[in-house]
Design a protein that fits this description.
The mean pLDDT is 93. With 263 residues, the chain is α/β, with parallel strands linked by helices. A 6-stranded mixed β-sheet has the order 1-2-3-5-7-10, with helices on both faces. The longest helix is centred in the N-terminal third of the chain and has 16 residues. The two termini are 31 Å apart. Helices cover 49% and strands 16% of the residues. It contains 12 helices and 10 strands. 35% of the residues are buried. The protein folds into 2 domains: 199 residues, 2-enoyl-CoA Hydratase, Chain A, domain 1; 48 residues, Lyase 2-enoyl-coa Hydratase, Chain  A, domain 2. Helix 1 packs parallel to helix 4 and helix 10 runs antiparallel to helix 11.
C-alpha cells in the first residue's frame, strides 16, 4: 500500500481516501494499484458492507497527470498507450463492475476528467457545496478515457451527457444535484458526517438483500422485463431462506431493531 492512498475499515464501513492533496489527488500508477488492491479487499472481506471513497484536501481527484502527457507521447506508441490505460486506469472500473457492495462517493472538491469518471463509478454521490465537476478531456483534444462516456449518459441522460462531454464546462454542486449528477449537496463541514450517516444506515441493513438489490438494478439495465423478473424470483427464494429474513420478522414482532449478520 502506498501513502498516496489511505484505507481503513470501521464498523462494517471501508473508507478509501485518495491522498495526494498537493497534486489535487491526481492519480499515479502506485495509487491506482493500491486503489485496486483496496477494492479487492472490500469485496473479499465479509466484514465490509459499504465502501466510502473520498479525497484528501480541497479536491476529490483531478484525474491523470496532464503535465506528463507531452513527455509520454514522445516514448509511447499508440498500442503502448492503449495497454497503459487497460493495465492502470481501467482496472478500477473493471473491479468495480464486480463489487457487489454499495459504493458511496463523497465528492469533497474538484472532480475533473478521469477524476469525475471515478466519481461516476459510485452507486451514490454526495457532494460538498464547494465541489465542482467537469469532463475536461475535450479541453486537451482527447475523449473521456476512463468510462465517463459510458457512465454519464446512464446517470443524467444522453443529451445532457453529450453537452458536458463536448463542452468540458464546469458544473457547480447545486447544478449537479439538479441534473442528477449527485444525489445530495451538503455544507462542506458536514460532508463526511452526512456520508457516514448514509453509509451506516445501509451497513445496518441486511447485507445479502442489499447486495442482491444492487446486482438486480445493474444487471436489469441490460435485461428484458421477463428475464429480470425471472432472476428476481430466484433471488427472492434465496432471501426468504436466510437468517436475516427471520431476524427481521422476529424484530418486527418484538418491536426492536434487527441485527443482521449477512447469513
Amino acid at each position: 500500500m502506498t501513502d498516496q492512498l489511505r484505507f481503513e475499515i470501521n464498523d462494517h464501513i471501508a473508507t478509501i481516501t485518495l491522498n495526494r492533496p498537493e497534486k489535487l489527488n491526481a492519480f499515479t500508477t502506485g495509487m491506482l494499484h493500491a486503489w485496486a488492491d483496496a477494492l479487492r479487499e472490500c469485496q473479499r472481506n465479509e466484514d465490509v458492507r459499504v465502501v466510502v471513497l473520498t479525497g484528501a484536501g480541497r479536491a476529490f481527484c483531478s484525474g491523470g497527470d496532464v503535465g506528463g502527457m507531452g513527455e509520454r507521447k514522445q516514448v509511447e506508441t499508440p498500442i503502448m498507450r492503449k495497454a497503459s490505460l487497460a493495465d492502470r486506469v481501467h482496472q478500477i472500473p473493471l473491479i468495480l463492475e464486480s463489487l457487489g457492495k454499495p459504493l458511496i462517493v463523497a465528492v469533497n472538491g474538484v472532480a475533473a476528467g478521469a477524476g469525475l469518471d471515478m466519481a461516476l463509478m459510485g452507486d451514490i454521490r454526495i457532494a460538498a457545496e464547494s465541489a465542482r465537476m467537469a469532463e475536461t478531456y475535450v479541453r486537451i483534444g482527447i475523449m473521456a478515457g476512463d468510462g465517463g462516456a459510458w457512465y454519464l449518459p446512464r446517470i443524467i441522460g444522453i443529451p445532457k451527457a453529450l453537452e458536458l462531454l463536448w463542452t468540458g464546462r464546469w458544473v457547480e454542486a447545486q447544478e449537479a444535484e439538479r441534473i442528477g449528477l449527485v444525489n445530495k449537496v451538503v455544507p462542506d463541514d458536514r460532508l463526511m458526517e452526512e456520508t457516514y450517516a448514509m453509509a451506516r444506515r445501509i451497513a445496518n441493513g441486511p447485507p445479502l438483500a442489499i447486495q442482491m438489490m444492487k446486482k438486480s438494478v445493474y444487471q436489469g439495465m441490460a435485461m428484458s422485463l421477463p428475464t429480470h423478473l425471472e432472476q428476481v424470483s430466484s433471488h427472492m427464494a434465496v432471501l426468504f431462506s436466510t437468517e436475516d429474513h427471520q431476524e427481521a420478522l422476529s424484530a418486527f414482532k418484538e418491536k426492536r431493531d434487527p441485527v443482521f449478520k449477512g447469513r
